[in-house]
Amino acid sequence: MSLARGKFGIEYNPKRMEPGSSGFGWVFAVVALAILVLGIWTFVSRVRTHAAEAELLEATGVAETPPSPDASKPSSSQALKPSNFPTSETFRSFQPLKAELARRPPKLRNLLMRLEEAEKRRDIEMAVSTIESIRALPGSPAADLDDSLARRLGALNLQGLFDLRSAQWVKTVTVGRGDSASRIAAENGSTFASLARLNGGTEKVEKILIGQKLYVMNHPRFNLVFHKRARTADLSLNGKFFKRYDLTSVPKAKEGAYEMPEKRRLFGQGVGACLRAEDRQELDMLLPKGSPILVSEL
């Protein structure tokens, strides 16, 4: 150990000088701090985004709920059996969306994912409410999907009407003395054909018994609009979109209002025979006499 003489003659062992720092320690410290701050900011941003999306979904009436362990087994009150769930070729147009969901607005993206989940669960009510929420989004962010959504919604609505017998459209009545299926349908603003389909066919409603329970549409207010330019016909029920049909030709009738005639075979004469035979038959079943039919130039 070496000794050195101090200023006042005191011997001591001088403190060794540590090598000078090159400054890299401070750089590492700053970088580590920046990474930590960035991680915290990313986490907080994700939490806020998730909360905002949840609020948006709740605002449209579509609450985001985690799937239950038996989600693949929907209850009979909410969904149909997988074999009866309506299939539609138009829904294939949604498949490419998986690759482009990122470019969709958060609200629309979540609704589209919810629609896919509803399809997996075979849940008609969930799918219908989700499509209606998508079509009602302000600014029409799903305008390029609207036609496919409308056609999918139509298939689901029709299935929900006749298979689920949705309470918003269908009620039960008790057959009384002197009642007939035609009379019950007329008194409730419906048609014999729709009542027959709701109750298992014509043969089952031709011989009804007093006290028997029947399903019947509850005073439906149908409205059919022919769009000449778009070559489509949109059917609404109680003020809400119900189903879309394709026109085989442009209606011959002028723009204006018409009514469903009493004799169904005269249906096409008022506006021109511009629907497929199966579509005309379906509309004959749904639309009672006097239902409004509009012709639009759009």
Sequence-ordered SSE layout with sheet pairings:
Elements: E1 4-5, E2 11-12, H1 24-59, H2 97-100, H3 106-121, H4 124-135, H5 146-164, E3 170-174, H6 181-187, H7 192-198, H8 202-206, E4 213-217, E5 222-227, E6 232-237, E7 240-246, E8 256-259, H9 267-271, H10 277-286, E9 292-296
Parallel strand pairs: 5-9
Antiparallel strand pairs: 1-2, 3-4, 5-6, 6-7, 8-9
Helix pairs in contact: 3-4, 4-5, 6-7
What can you tell me about this protein's structure?
Mean pLDDT is 78; it is low at 55-83 and 88-93. With 298 residues, this protein is an alpha+beta fold. It is built from 10 helices and 9 strands. The strands form 3 sheets. The chain has a 5-stranded mixed β-sheet. It is elongated and about 100 Å long. It starts with a strand and ends with a strand. Helix content is 41%, strand content 14%. Among the domains are: 89-164, no CATH class; 170-217, LysM domain (Membrane-bound Lytic Murein Transglycosylase D, Chain A, Roll), CATH 3.10.350; 222-296, Beta Barrel (L,D-transpeptidase catalytic domain-like), CATH 2.40.440.
> What is the mean predicted local confidence, pLDDT?
78
- The largest beta-sheet arranges its strands as 7-6-5-9-8
Which series of helices and strands comes N to C?
EEHHHHHEHHHEEEEEHHE
Strand content: 5-15%
What low-confidence regions span 5 or more consecutive residues with pLDDT below 50? 55-83, 88-93
Gyration radius from CA atoms, angstroms? 33 Å
Q: Specify the helix fraction band.
A: 40-55%
Computed structural class: alpha+beta
Tally of helical segments: 10
Per DSSP E runs of 2 or more residues, the count of β-strands stands at: 9
User: Mind summarizing the main beta sheet?
Assistant: 5 strands, mixed
From the spread of the alpha carbons, the general shape counts as elongated
N- and C-termini, Cα separation: 103 Å
